User: Which sequence fits this backbone?
């Protein structure tokens, strides 16, 4: 095989892999990853500080597992009696396939939350939130893990990877940015307004449409992702149990995706929102892709909250024959801490 053919074939293969990888990943417990759902959902907790993490492993039944790890930190800062801002950071590490094609992101976020109730109005918890998020992204792969048919000569393997001599680079870096807007209605102060909460949101990711190609002669722009969000929750009177509905509609390039989930929370210890233990159970559905049972445990005390969740994707797409319906395991955990009694308590994102 000539060196030109090697370049062409390798370019095609890597471009296809990079194009697939450039489609954004999706968490099944997406309500636990608010900044990946919409940057305007940063600060969705009424506590002062929130730390959340998630781990996802998928497609292990078909190929080398695709693994994603996230870590987010958010801090709410009070501006006046009702308005506040959120500052934080979203960290992501994603790796896929035999070539260990990976992406590492560090994106700070700033979100402003404006109370719309008015100084003399009833405090119904109406908030308009606007956020921007952006930072550095690095993507790379390992060519030494790839093999080609011309490395086998007379039945013997030649460890010299013929593509390494023609590769210009195996790592790229770029700046990415996103913005989001959301409206939330509902309070958590025990009034009648807390019986039903809802939110609406819209966001655009990859505003700068960065070039994610490894080849200087190619311009493979990362396609913008547009997201519409909606959700609500309803409190059962008398027992503090609550039912939640979430839905996201995503457009990226020629791809469309609809995600929805239903969760029910039940108090298993205590009967209030100050000191209690809760269990969440339900399911998520990705249209024509996966059905996902979800289980979460949450411990609430006077000044902090801890939550751990687990879910598993049962693949129902056209890959189900090869995957045997096995998709991916996902684990989430979060910790929230309250330092100040002065923070407003909007039911942002109805959670």
Assistant:
């Amino acid at each position: 095989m000539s060196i030109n053919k090697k370049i062409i074939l390798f370019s095609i293969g890597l471009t296809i892999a990079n194009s697939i990888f450039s489609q954004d990943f999706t968490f099944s417990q997406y309500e636990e990853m608010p900044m990946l759902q919409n940057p305007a959902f940063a600060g969705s907790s009424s506590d002062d500080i929130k730390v959340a993490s998630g781990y996802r492993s998928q497609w292990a039944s078909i190929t080398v597992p695709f693994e994603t790890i996230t870590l987010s930190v958010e801090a709410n800062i009070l501006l006046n009696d009702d308005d506040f801002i959120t500052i934080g950071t979203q960290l992501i590490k994603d790796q896929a396939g035999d070539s260990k094609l990976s992406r590492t992101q560090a994106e700070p976020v700033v979100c402003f939350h404006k109370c719309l109730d008015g100084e003399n109005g009833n405090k119904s918890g109406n908030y308009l939130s606007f956020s921007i998020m952006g930072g550095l992204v690095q993507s790379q792969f390992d060519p030494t893990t790839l093999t080609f048919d011309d490395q086998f000569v007379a039945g013997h393997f030649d460890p010299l990877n013929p593509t390494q001599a023609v590769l210009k680079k195996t790592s790229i870096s770029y700046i990415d940015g996103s913005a989001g807007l959301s409206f939330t209605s509902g309070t958590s102060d025990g009034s009648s307004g807390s019986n039903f909460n809802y939110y609406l949101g819209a966001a655009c990711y990859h505003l700068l449409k960065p070039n994610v190609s490894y080849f200087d002669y190619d311009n493979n722009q990362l396609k913008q992702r547009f997201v519409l969000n909606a959700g609500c929750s309803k409190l059962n009177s008398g027992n503090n149990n609550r039912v939640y509905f979430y839905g996201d509609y995503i457009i990226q390039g020629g791809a469309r995706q609809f995600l929805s989930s239903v969760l029910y929370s039940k108090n298993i210890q205590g009967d209030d929102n100050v000191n209690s233990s809760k269990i969440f159970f339900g399911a998520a559905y990705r249209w024509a892709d996966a059905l996902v049972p979800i289980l979460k445990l949450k411990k609430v005390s006077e000044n902090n909250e801890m939550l751990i969740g687990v879910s598993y994707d049962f693949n129902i797409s056209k890959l189900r024959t090869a995957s045997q319906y096995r998709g991916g395991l996902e684990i989430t955990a979060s910790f929230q801490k309250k330092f100040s009694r002065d923070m407003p308590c909007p039911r942002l994102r109805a959670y």
Q: What stands out?
A: The domain at 3-350 is CATH 2.40.160.40 (Porin). DSSP finds three helices and 16 strands in the chain.
